[in-house]
Amino acid sequence: MLLGLAAVVVTLLWFDVPADLLAGYTAYLLLGIALPGVFTWRLLLRGLHTRGRPPTWFEDLSLGTIFGFGVQLPFFLVGVALGAHWLPVLAPALVLVLGLTGFGRDVWRLPTRRMDARASWALAGVVAYGMAWLGREVLGRRPLGIPLNRTPSVDETFHQALIADVGNRFPPEIPFLLGVRLDYHWFVHAQIAASNALTGLDSVTMIRLVMPSVVLVLAVLGLGAAALRLTGRPVAAVIAPALLVAGAYHLLGPSFAPATFHAPYLSPRFVSSPSQSYGVMMSMPAVMLLLEVLRPRRRADRLTWLALALALLALSGSKATFLPIFVCGALAVWGVQLLRTRRIDRTATALVVLLVAVTVFAQVVLFGGQSGSMLLDPGQSVVSALRSQGIEPTTLNQTLMTGTLLVGWLLYGVGVLGLWRRLLDPRAVWLLVAVPAGITIPFLFFRTGLSQYWFSRSVAELVVLLSAWGMAVLLPRPLTTRTALRLGAVAAVACAAGYTASALMERARGGSGVPTTGSMLVTVAVPVGVLLVWLLLRLAFRLAGRRGRPGLLLVLTVLLGLSLVNVAELAVHTARGDRIAMLRLKQTTPLFARGGVEAASYIAENSSVDDIVATNVHCLHPDADRCDNRSFWVAAYTERRVVVQGWGYTAVTNAMADGDTNSQVVPMPYPERLAVNDAAFSDPSEESVRRLVDTYDVSWLFVSRKYPADISGLRELDDLLVEAYRGPGHVVFEVRD
User: Fold this and answer.
1) Can you tell me whether residue 113 is helix, strand or coil?
2) First to last CA, the chain
3) How many CA atoms lie within 13 A of 328 on its CB side?
4) How far apart are alpha carbons 472 and 213 in whole angstroms?
5) CA–CA separation, 480 vs 201, rounded Å?
6) DSSP character for 578?
7) 325 phi-psi bin (left φ>0, alpha ψ -120 to 50, beta other)
């Protein structure tokens, strides 16, 4: 644990997170999140501690800390509604008070086992590897020293705007399009807002550095805990998270950039989509409890079901892709149990009812019943993947790309073959149906923002759980160090061979990172070839009457080794001393004119959180041929709601897009509002400005010189407006009372 913590701290300090703020956040995480979370987790799962084989402290600390984010959230939201941002401190204070009573001491004294030391060290290594990969491949690309107006990330300003709104007002809304409900998975934004209120860490530092690191480490530990509870074997607690952070098989070349559609878990999108990485972490307690209530020959008590309900609610607003997948698995369990026993299984029925209820709650209450505007368009995702790589979408190439995606998403799950005798176990049924449910969606549906791929990424932890469970069944008991080292050597050789083949093919095509028909064919053919060679060897040994035929464990180890080519790639780049790919600032287009942050911050510092802002900034770039509607930075830095800035990433905009129109160029869905807004800037008069102010209760006008505006005309309305701030590129007017 200490080694893993050191890896995180060193990485964050290396990337210039202030030491004092990092120390404050660490204290907040331990006292504000982990303390109430672990206490509540142990309280609700006391039945697991007192009956049968009790959990380890590793399980309680890992899953309890993740659970703590869900425990803390309602305290923060109520605090925002009441204007009392300090309210989350009540949760740890209550736990400390209870700890002085006999009831609280009993919770801490519940029977708890210790973790195998070898597994603890191995998990620390997995955490260190994950942080090394994240630091080298992602965090270093956007250092904190970049001028904020030159950051290339539109998504960052989108998330900043949501964080500001969730942190200042409840219920939250879309801040850059006034009066539109927030139909996004916003729980991670609430967590960042809470940490900002209680520790002072700004949202940019949290989005770019701190939150990705925290959720990565807790996802690794939480998945290890879930695997340990599922299998009872410490080796599974290492295999599952190791495969999650390192598994992403392809032989398309070391320079191939798989971020958009290929990488199952760790990718450059790990930071750009905080809701996905946070959702994976928050799914760990729910997955562990789902598997626990489905455990054969053991009935879960009511407190365990309550813990599951709370974990699912905490997951519901974290990412929308998980619950539908979980429902599919639960329905399969219900059907299989009905066929097996000829009666309705109470546990399976209760699970289906609970999952459907939480899913409906999420869709209706949190997401407003919107579907994400995904269109039924089978095969379009594969065509899009080919076109993104400049490959002609012929029938052959579509077939090979489909195979490449499937093998890349699933090869690190081949350990499931070890479960062939346990396929009717309810836990196996749930996992075996939930995985293809998530994998199938990208092949059937399409959306211009490629949101369909989040479903395939959301089953990554289920794939590795199946694989770790199967490997735990096949591995000898006890697993000696000698056997572990031998199998590790086999996996390392397979990993090195896969990387070498990938590098040679890339060199043969001139060092290009763009895949070809040949490289896709090899990617699909190699795992199939390994299986065929193994089958032929077993047949030859059998015909020759020889013993010691190569077993299933050996070939699975080879295949899992092939899925670790990312490890070899990181090792080679580090050994060669390759520089971290920083942003080339001279080649990036500024997101907004110089001085925009200062002008927007003036409003944030001199206004009420309920004040409304109007602006002439709408399109991402002022001189573009088509208006890119993903403009969010004014709402992000003023931290106030805007009458209309951009309108991208909203349900109403997404619904206007179709398969031929990208949602980011859809016109404004409320043209009358846009007309009223822009008239006040382009043709200012007492009538036009007062109409805007009175209609939308506007208190501030934020004017950019890069966009159409008659600034001198606005200045002449001194009985209605007062010029509050003037900068090189922006002017701020305050509406007089």
Assistant:
1) strand
2) 57
3) 17
4) 28
5) 46
6) P
7) alpha
By the 10 Å C-beta count (0-12 exposed, 13-18 middle, 19+ buried), 729 is classed as middle
Measured CA to CA, the distance from residue 683 to residue 714 in angstroms comes to: 9
CA atoms of 398 and 462, how far apart (whole Å): 26
Amino acid at position 73, single letter = L
Residue 727 to residues 3, 396, 723, Cα–Cα distance (Å): 48, 57, 11
Using CA atoms, how far apart are residues 113 and 115, in angstroms rounded to an integer? 7
Q: Is the pLDDT of residue 656 over 90?
A: no
Q: Is the peptide bond before 171 cis (omega within 30 degrees of 0)?
A: yes
Distance CA 184, CA 202 (A): 21
Pairwise CA distance, residues 614 & 701, whole Å? 5
Is pLDDT at 584 greater than 60 in this prediction?
A: no
Beta bridge partners of 701: 614, 733
- Check if the beta carbon of residue 172 is closer than 8 Å to that of residue 162: yes
d(CA 623, CA 589): 12
Q: Against a cut of 0.85, is the pTM above it?
A: yes
Nearest-angstrom CA–CA distance, 128 and 242:
11
Residue 244 · residue 466 · CB < 8 Å: no
Asked if residues 223 and 241 have their Cβ atoms less than 8 Å apart, the reply is yes
Task: Provide the pLDDT for residue 220.
Answer: 97
Which residues, 6 or more positions from 127, have their beta carbon under 8 angstroms from its beta carbon? 3, 4, 7, 8, 217, 220, 221
The token duo for 435 is 């995985």
pLDDT digits (tens, 9 = 90+) for 291-330: 999 999 889 999 999 999 999 999 999 998 999 999 999 9
Q: For 28-140, where are the alpha helices, taking DSSP H only? A: 35-44, 46-50, 57-82, 90-99, 102-108, 117-137
* Average pLDDT over every residue of 362-371: 83
- Token readout for 674 is 């846009």
Q: How many CB atoms lie within 10 A of CB 688?
A: 19
Residues 6 or more apart in contact with residue 628 via CB below 8 angstroms: 619, 620, 621, 648, 664, 665
Q: How many Cα atoms are found within 13 Å in the side-chain-facing hemisphere of 254? A: 21
- The angle, 0 to 180 degrees and rounded to 10, between the axes of the packed helices 460-474 and 211-231 is 40
Question: Is residue 432 a contact partner of residue 423, using CB atoms and an 8 Å limit?
Answer: yes
Return the residue matching tokens 């896709």: 520
| Residue 216 C-alpha from the chain's centroid | 9
The tokens for 697 are: 């209760």
Phi and psi dihedrals of 729, rounded to 5?
-125, -5
Q: Identify the helix (H) or strand (E) that includes residue 641.
A: strand 641-642
Distant-in-sequence, close-in-space partners of 437: CB < 8 Å, separation ≥ 6: 324, 325, 328, 329, 459
Q: What's the maximum distance between 2 C-alpha atoms anywhere in the chain?
A: 101
Closest CA to 289 of 40, 467, 115, 44: 44
d(CA 384, CA 401): 10
Is residue 702 helix, strand or coil? strand
CA 478 to chain centre: 36
Residue 364 φ/ψ, nearest 5 degrees: -85, -50
| Model confidence at 568: pLDDT above 70 | yes
- Beta carbons within 8 Å of 519's beta carbon, 6+ residues apart: 251, 252, 253, 505, 506, 509
Strand order in the sheet with 612-615: 641-642, 612-615, 698-704, 730-735, 721-726
